[in-house]
Amino acid sequence: FRLFPYMPKWKKNEVTYRIVNYTADMNQIDTDAAIERALKVWSDVTPLTFHRLREGEADIMISFAVQEHGDFIPFDGPGGVLGHAYPPGPKINGDVHLDDDEKWTKDTTGVNLFLVAAHEFGHSLGLFHSTDTKALMYPIYNANTDLTRFFLSQDDIAGIQSLYGSPDGPVPPTKSADTEKPEEKPVTCDSNRSFDAVSTLRGEMLFFKDRYFWRKSSNNIEPALYMLTTFWPSLPSGFDAVYELTTKDMVFIFKESKFWSIKGSDIQPGYPRDIYTLGFPRTVKKIDAAFFYKEKQKTYFFVNDIYWRYDEKRHSMDHGYPRQIATDFPGVNQKIDAAFEAFGFFYFFSGSTQFQFDPNAKRVTRTLKSNSWFNC
Amino acid sequence: HPLHPAARAGKMSMDRIQKYLEDFYHLEKNGKQFVRRKDSNPVVAKIQDMQRFFGLKVTGNLDDDTMEMMKKPRCGFPDVSP
């Protein structure tokens, strides 16, 4: 997904809309219904609500027009361009214009109004075009979309939630959402904050806890909190360990005796796999923490008070392992929840405490709060 | 020189191709784009931008896949920011 430059968004959750005029192709009730359903696509996955006005200036003014219609971007007759919309903001911004030289229908015998309107509303809310062919925000109209089972792609959801967050209530069921009750959102600056796993990802840092994770990027002081299902709806929650193999732009996610490989938000085919394919003995039931040390091309896996070292070039465990953690990482004497490598240091997380370890000096150089990265 | 990309445009008119690249890839609207220019060719660059966006083979030429994509009904908003 992509956002507009400067990321314009509505600075409120109650957005108004008005159907300024109607196409003669459909009866007004069907047009109303298509517009409402198209707005619901977005309100279902954000805190946004849409209130209809019957007169005056609404945030999103929806109109049908042909050829030149007052915004210097004329439509082009039947086919080609079906409509366009403007990013959030005053006056024409947020508005949706639909080309009435198309044959608008409530099914796909013509151009489906619901589908095109839902796409244009994505622009009205701040989304740019996506290159993901499965995304609603992909610019090409897909007449083969199954309207009876329409749902936003993860790309669309990730995009709109990066602007407005997820709905305050539970996220509406997607194909694979768990049916458990979503527990309270974790408090970012809780002084007892602990993590299930921590990893880098394409220059950002991800801190995982239960069904959530924080994304911390270098250009944002504060981390942003997301639900795992925003990006990885088919993964279980409560990861045990996560590490980024930066040389391959891959992230590996561990839960109990399984692990997945992901690239961005895409799960690689052929996963999950058993951790035993990496060389762990069957006595190991889960991994506590893992990180990749690029300088040595080795990945370190921590289990209770011992650890293994995996050679990412030879794709096998190094000989002479497992070894005692306390022997090779003096000062790291507690059970590790999570770990990652950054700026030449190893960071070990145990409960609400974080140890910064210098692999050259072979000693703990700082003891911090686990959420010290959140600038609380 | 390989044939100028526009020469192989086949059924889609030059104007429509130029308008597509102007509308969705910010090709400068100065009308003389299709004149062969020794120094650089903004049309080729914009065709490549479009091919990159749609994950097509980036040739800079108006090959069949590229032409097919240009004909598909779509949203009128640009695919790339200026």
N-end to C-end Cα span of chain A: 30 Å
**Sheet of most strands of chain B:** none
- Rounded to the nearest angstrom, the distance between the terminal CA atoms of chain B is 30 Å
Which oligomeric form is depicted? heterodimer
β-sheet strand percentage of chain B: under 5%
The chain-level mean pLDDT of chain A equals: 90
Structural class of chain A, by secondary structure, is alpha+beta
Helix content of chain B: 25-40%
CA-based shape of chain A: elongated
What percent of residues of chain A adopt helix (DSSP H or I)? Answer: 10-25%
Structural class of chain B: mainly alpha
Protein described:
The complex is a heterodimer of chains A (376) and B (82). With 376 residues, chain A is an alpha+beta fold. In chain A, 13% of the residues lie in helices and 31% in strands. In chain A, β23 and β24 form a beta hairpin. The two termini of chain A are 30 Å apart. By secondary structure, chain B is mostly helical. Chain B has three helices and one strand. Chain B has helices spanning 14-25, 42-53, 64-71; one strand at 74-75. Mean pLDDT of chain B is 79; it is low at 1-10 and 35-39. The A-B interface holds A 4-5, 73, 75, 79-85, 99, 102, 111, 116, 119-120, 123, 128-129, 131, 133, 139-141, 143 and B 23-24, 53-55, 69, 72-79, 81.
Give a summary of the structure in a few sentences.
The complex is a heterodimer of chains A (376) and B (82). Chain A has 376 residues and is of the alpha+beta class.
Topology at a glance:
The complex is a heterodimer of chains A (376) and B (82).
Chain A: E1 14-19, H1 28-43, E2 49-52, E3 60-65, E4 81-85, E5 96-99, E6 104-105, E7 111-112, H2 113-125, H3 154-164, E8 197-201, E9 204-209, E10 212-216, E11 224-227, H4 228-231, E12 241-245, E13 250-255, E14 258-263, E15 266-267, E16 273-274, E17 289-293, E18 298-303, E19 306-311, E20 316-317, E21 323-324, H5 325-328, E22 338-342, E23 345-350, E24 353-358, E25 363-369
Parallel strand pairs in A: 1-2, 1-3, 3-5, 6-7
Antiparallel strand pairs in A: 4-5, 8-9, 9-10, 10-11, 12-13, 13-14, 14-15, 14-16, 17-18, 18-19, 19-20, 19-21, 22-23, 23-24, 24-25
Helix pairs in contact in A: 1-2
Chain B: H1 14-25, H2 42-53, H3 64-71, E1 74-75
Helix pairs in contact in B: 1-2
